[in-house]
Specification:
alpha/beta, Rossmann fold, 4-stranded parallel sheet
């Protein structure tokens, strides 16, 4: 089974959306998808209501997800770790114990814009359009991931 982790700052906006989107595109028998945040602000909390709403609008239910913090043990538990932006990428890499850990980490948008290290913007302080824009970015990236994993 291939295990994939999506990581943003608080694990309530971008990473739960990415988790829900990718889960909808992959077989749960062959893939495990989870999400986490580099910060400890929202441990045990549901995703932001705007993330839940935009997911629901697109036929996905992420309301049952709960925030958790990224930890060093995630390097052992997951095969691939996708960071939503440069700040979270750096936070993850700082915890890496070796080059093998670092090799598991990538920017999610590198799946559609290779080696450009583009950020998925944090929609938390923006309006509802920000959540729709983030959904569309993540949907495109998750399409690319699912096509790569399910040729």
């Amino acid at each position: 089974m291939t295990k994939i982790l999506m990581v943003c700052l608080g694990n309530i906006c971008r990473s739960p959306l990415a988790e829900g989107i990718l889960k909808s595109k992959l077989s749960s028998a062959a893939f495990f998808v989870d999400s986490a945040g580099t910060g400890d602000y929202h441990i045990g909390k549901k995703p932001d209501s705007r993330s839940i709403a935009v997911a629901k609008k697109h036929g996905l239910d992420i309301s049952n997800l709960k925030g958790r913090q990224f930890s060093v043990s995630d390097f052992d538990a997951f095969d691939v770790i996708y960071a939503m932006d440069e700040s979270n990428y750096r936070n993850i890499i700082t915890l890496a114990r070796n080059e093998q850990d670092k090799a598991k980490v990538n920017f999610i948008l590198n799946e559609i814009y290779p080696d450009q290290n583009q950020n998925v913007p944090d929609p938390y302080y923006g309006g509802n359009d920000g959540f729709e824009n983030v959904y569309n970015m993540l949907d495109e990236a998750c399409d690319a991931i699912s096509k790569k994993l399910n040729p």
